[in-house]
Amino acid sequence: MSFISISKTALAVLLAVGSVNACPSGTRHSNNNNINNTAAAVKPVGAAAVATSPEIVPPSGGGYSNGGGMHATTYFAGYHAKRSKAFTVEQMPWSKYTDVKYAFAETTANGTLDMHKSAPEELPKFVKAAHAAGVKAQLAIGGWSGSIHFGSNVGDAKNRTAFVKTCLDTVKQYDLDGLDFDWEYPGRQGLGCNAVGPNDTLNFMAFLQELRREQPKPLLLSAAVSLFPYNNKDGQRSANGELSKMAELLDYSIIVGYDIFGAWAGTGGPNAPLAFSCDSKRNNQGGIKEGIEAWVGAGYPKEKLVLGFGAYGHGFTVENKEAFGPDGALLAYPKNSGQRRQGSTWDDDPLVDDCGGAQPASGTFTVWSMVQEGKFLDEAGNPAPGIAHGFDNCSQTPFLYDNATQWWVSYDNAQSIKAKGGYLTSNKLAGFAMWEAGGDFKNLTVDAIRSAVGLPKA
């Protein structure tokens, strides 16, 4: 029996609990991570609201050993393998990475996994190619639209045991080396109809504990986590070592340091700011440095944190008169007109999401599309002729503007990636994670981060 459901599973819970920023569907997920946001006002939904506080006792061993080396990881989006301008398994630059995650398997109401959106027939090819290249193959579970049932799947002991079985059967079925959990977000609403409860974070740790206990071999287990720590049972951001046991149960966690500003914001702003406290009047959303410091405060050692960044940028519609300051310089935080337009080919048209809500176009541009479609960049990653550009020294991010199309785009270039790599190495983080491999152009982005952290070009 396959534990990956190919047909779409009907949703058991479709209760919206407040509005959230629409996720850019062409990216890994939305961070939706305003620094003042907590879950105090979120009502429990569905089975996630169980009043349990499971005791978490991390195993004495059983994790995957990377030999102390740096994790160079990325995601392969299965749903981009079959669409227009596809990125296929055959195009993967395996030599650039130590482990790669196939995205996504989505959670379901009955505790199985659903891959019908992500070309499940490609997963065996992906695993075979990864292993042939000496790369660890993981399956990413969840994502922006795939986290609806995470809360109920781990919400009580019976459901946790069933979900552990689903996960381990899937590992066996596809000969995977591990799993990557992308729950968006424990104790907080994400898409709009997710099962949410105050014990989500504790229940997730109890699930990880049982998964470690039952694993037949040491698995590579990771999680892609929000910029700031998961909420505790009181609906507040975890602190004072509250997540130390989670750190012990996972091999590493990826700090999703992107989607900080997007087309939903009132102004343009950095997609992936390295820091924000140096300019908090204009950026009240957050930055990678401050996020990592908060996770360390919540009990995570730096050597278990991976810096996540994107091979794409967020585009904003900015009128010509709003794009430049009195001195003629391109503004780092220009007024956003609010018009939502499709960015690259991979940025979906407006659609109805899995909660029944309207999701507008997000205006995202992959690095590939910034070169090939938008013509914003040349093939070396530099601004093309006629494209205005600037660099913000606080967030350490570049931005550009096309006067003809009124696209203002925040992205990452060699300079900003060098800054991120310098921070990563000086703080002895566990490595880097790029969303996603298919968004790059001739390996510009991955080669830049490898160079920045002292790895060979490969």
Automatic annotation (TrEMBL):
Span of domain GH18: 74-456
GO biological process: chitin catabolic process; polysaccharide catabolic process
Keyword Signal attributed: yes
Gene Ontology, cellular component aspect: extracellular region
Pfam families: Glyco_hydro_18
Entries under Gene3D superfamilies matching the protein: 3.10.50.10, Glycosidases
The reaction(s) this protein catalyses: Random endo-hydrolysis of N-acetyl-beta-D-glucosaminide (1->4)-beta-linkages in chitin and chitodextrins
Enzyme Commission code(s) on record: 3.2.1.14
Database matches in InterPro entries: Chitinase_II/V-like_cat, Chitinase_insertion_sf, GH, Glyco_hydro18_cat, Glyco_hydro_18_chit_AS, Glycosyl_Hydrlase_18
Principal localisation: secreted
Signal sequence, start to end: 1-22
Molecular-function annotations in GO: chitin binding; endochitinase activity
Statement: the UniProt record of this protein carries the keyword Iron: no
Compartments, record wording: Secreted
Keyword set, alphabetical order: Carbohydrate metabolism, Chitin degradation, Glycosidase, Hydrolase, Polysaccharide degradation, Secreted, Signal
PANTHER family: CHITINASE, HAP41P
Annotated family: Belongs to the glycosyl hydrolase 18 family. Chitinase class V subfamily.
Protein name per its UniProtKB record: chitinase
The organism of origin for this protein: Gaeumannomyces tritici (strain R3-111a-1) (Wheat and barley take-all root rot fungus)
Gene name of the encoded protein: 20345930
